[in-house]
Amino acid sequence: DKTLNGKVALVTGGSRGIGAATAVRLAREGADVALTYVNGKEAAEDVVRAVEALGRRAVALRADSADAAEAAGAVGAAADALGGLDVLVNNAGIGVLGPLEDLSLADVDRVLAVNVRGVFLTSQAAAGRMGAGGRIITVGSCMVQRVPGPGGTLYALSKSALVGLTKGLARDLGPRGITASLVHPGPIDTDMNPADGPYAAGQAALTALGRFGTGDEVASMVAYLAGATYVTGAEYAVDGGHAA
Ligand code: NDP
Asked: Which residues does the UniProt record annotate as the domain Ketoreductase (predicted)?
């Protein structure tokens, strides 16, 4: 039997990249999947079709994590569409990297709204809809463990907040049999960080394996954590040895 048969998952930012790979991977393990997007309606619909091709139900929801009502509201919409919620994957995130002096107040507010506030609000709403066996899996970054050079202050700040979130959720929700975990991807080949981009070679060189990872390599860890029963409050690197 597949590990996630009969489960419902919500993946934020599931239209492209790591989120899209995760949505398909969870469906392969038996889950029905809701995913959110902001601009990528057609890409989201492609992911819905990929999930349906695996014999699972899927729904794409337009929900901007930067908007408080939409970040929380995606949970109810997903649960209503698919009949409950068992797994939340907080994947939606943005990277605004660059010289410290160039980061504007708007950059600070936007990054914190998507990467931190939205994650909190979606998790809080999900906790309200989950029963025992619920899973909250959040996508952090290898830059929580090591900021390898200049330009990452704001992004690393935002992703580091997810460590406290995950530990706190583990304690808040453990008594209800709900777990919380944090996955730290290294350089992963996506639109956000293409393996043929100007900074790619330097990033690959920082890993022990000397290469970028794929969305599916991150998704396999998310799928493991979605099925794991005695893992909570902890961080998992899927970073090719970036932190080694
Ligand atoms: P991409 O930029 O390739 O894809 C981002 C996805 O998130 C898209 O589906 C996008 O939707 C969605 N999204 C963006 N902003 C919002 C928002 N405000 N509300 C809801 N959805 C949103 O990113 P990756 O797949 O590379 O990254 C996924 C996660 O992994 C992020 O949290 C990122 O910080 C993290 N990460 C990535 C690494 C990498 O090297 N790629 C390394 C470490 C961490 P739409 O199509 O509508 O724009």
From this structure: 7-229
Q: Is the ipTM of this complex over 0.90?
A: yes
**CA separation (Å) from 30 to 27, 226, 227?**
5, 11, 11
Residue 109 to residue 115: CA distance in whole angstroms: 10
pTM of structure: 0.99
Specify whether 199 is catalytic. no
Any idea which architecture 8-238 has in CATH? Answer: 3-Layer(aba) Sandwich (3.40)
Q: How far is the CA of 169 from the centre of ligand 1 (A)?
A: 22
Of 10, 11, 12, 16, the residue with max ligand 1 atoms within 8 A of its CB, to mutate for a pocket test, comes to 16
The count of residues in the chain is 244
Tokens of 18: 């790591």
**Gap from CA of 150 to ligand 1 centroid (Å):** 21
Query: 């048969």: which residue's tokens?
Result: 5
Domain limits of the chain? 8-238
**Residue of the CA atom closest to atom 33 of ligand 1:** 93
Q: Tell me the pLDDT tens digit for each residue of 104-142.
A: 999 999 999 999 999 999 999 999 999 999 999 999 999
